[in-house]
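Sequence of DnaJ homolog subfamily C member 13 (Cacopsylla melanoneura).
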Amino acid sequence: MCIDGYYLRILLESSSQDLGIRSPLTFFNNLYHRFLLTQRLDMKCQCLQAMSIVYNQYSEVIGLFPDIRYIIVMLSRTQDKLERDRLLIFLDKLLSYKENIKIFLDENGISVLVDLVTLAHLHVTRARHVIQSNVLEAAAGANNALEDQEKEWYYGTSEQSKGPVSFGQMKQLWAAGELNPKTKVWAHGMEGWKSLHQVTQLKWTLVAKNSGGVMNETELSSLILSMLIKITRCYPTRDEDGAVIWPLPKVKRCLSQATVLPHLVQLLLTFDPGLVELVATLLCEIVVDNALARKLYLTGVFFFILMYTGSNVLPIARFLQLTHTAQAFMSDTLTSSDLMKRSILGPLLPEAMLYYLENHGADKFAQIFLGEFDTPEAIWSGDMRRHLIGKIAAHLADFTPRLAGNNRAVYQFCGIPAVRYPQLESEMFVNVFYLRHLCDATRFPDWPISHPVQLLKEVLEAWTSEVERKPPEMTADDAYQSLGLTRGSHHEENVVRKAYYKIASQYHPDKNPGGRDIFVRANKAYDFLCSRTCWENNEPNPNNIVLVLRTQSILFHRYSEELSGYKYAGYRQLIATIRAETSDENETLFSSAGSLLGAAVELAYHTVQCSALNAQELNNEGGFQCLHVAFTRCLSVLTHSLSGSEMPVQVCSYVAKCYTVAAQFTGCRVTFCSMSPSLLSDLAYTLRSCLASSSSSSSSSSSHGLLRLAADTVQCVSGLAIDET
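Predicted 3D structure, token representation.
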């Protein structure tokens, strides 16, 4: 075919970057006229291909293409795969010119593209990602089985319909001649009954002609997503001065519609690396300065995106950073962490991961998410990621198979039970630190703490919360009963979810105004079973309190200069802890849980060592008398067999050092005088016991520890013997 002296075959085969067309506008118009006039499909496709090449190179010369509406109509009506692909590629080139984009949006072109993009779910021969878990995707041969599992299709008329049948059965009915292009059909996710040839999935699997397309379904969807990204970027939401443009650009309003956005989001469930990256990039463009994005979580996007197992997670991390605290959602309201409350990811990710996302940005989060980390600021591993994926996959098990048989199905949001990570069962997270690791001086000596004052404040709050823990108002059995499940036994998540769905659908106030109370109780019960409160131990944990005390000791020891200007606010709780540990009723003083007393007394010493204000405050709270009781109780068990690292020796040593420091202050010395002669008698007894035990001890470590206690005792006596005259 020759047009204006140019042979199309040679033009299409040319690899030259410069076509050398003398009059691009005239040549393009003649190509378009030939395209309109010819009835031969192969010639139409050649013209479309040539127009794509010419417009791509000469778009500024050719300018506005006024017939975009006609191209969109042809794209929606064609039943030939080759023509469809050529039209789509041509449309992609046209949308590189901004004036064409405006016409495209006015003609509702986005809905046509979104209809086509859902075909990605039908690409059953897609190559599997090398690290994808079999939890997420079955083998390629299992897709036909999935088609037959979900029966969602009806055919006939709305008054006299047949079904439901599966997608596989629809194919059989078509092959048997029971269906034709004009048969009315309906499935979940469709707005109403349509002729079969108007339903994108059925048109391209049943009606479409056999001519091969240029692209498979994944390539087709990738092109469409790239087009949508290009269109979105043409209309920024801020002007040159950074002010928000109002109203929101039309393209973002279109892409945010409930009939569009869920289908874009659900492409994440293809798990194709290219598609996932494009979807994440497009979503980042959509959500910027978009108030409609506050309900994005209802599409299930945060579940779908965290199920992805590939390594190209940076676009995902950027999307999460933009959106995780911007949702109209409050997760796990009983948690003490403000970030965990505000973040939609609170039930899914450990708190440390959220802080990395919030404080260090997408790049660092992606690095952590892909790696293996075990530090005071991050505990994450491949096993934890697989655990997360498995939990989400189980939660979505009722929905994901549906897309293979009905790619217009729409996910109905349901909260997920908070994910429990076995690796974090013994961890306590405060501020931005796992306290067990922070207190591990062997593995993490001198781990940097950027904001010691803030950490101290939050540790004190965590201490109070730990001590004041109370059982929740509702128990798991109460929640099960509200959902119609048996009390006294554990029920799997899918059972709980189905029970909740059943009650919610039956008693929702919109359907059953008289069932409001039952609906509210079911909601409350399901929220409770999804929260961390349901499975957490709601009694004070001594191990957590030890970590809190040791963290404070680290802060006062290493950051005394920064903290010296502040009066310690935790003495009442500290003294209460020491009294509880040294009371006559406490029989666990010298058991394995006895480290609590040692940590408490050590903290008392470090606070006094840090600031004179603290010495005076401890004195005012009666702390020195309390320490004397602890000293006396530990003194009674000092023997030559004790090493310097054992709790009784440490308690006596820290009490002695605390007294030594406090003796510098007049008010404290007055208190010590009032404690005589029992205090001096105990110090003298300590000195005699240490010297006698160390001389008879066969262990060098025991001898060294007792001698160190003796030295601390001598210093204490010297400090108390200051002559004020």
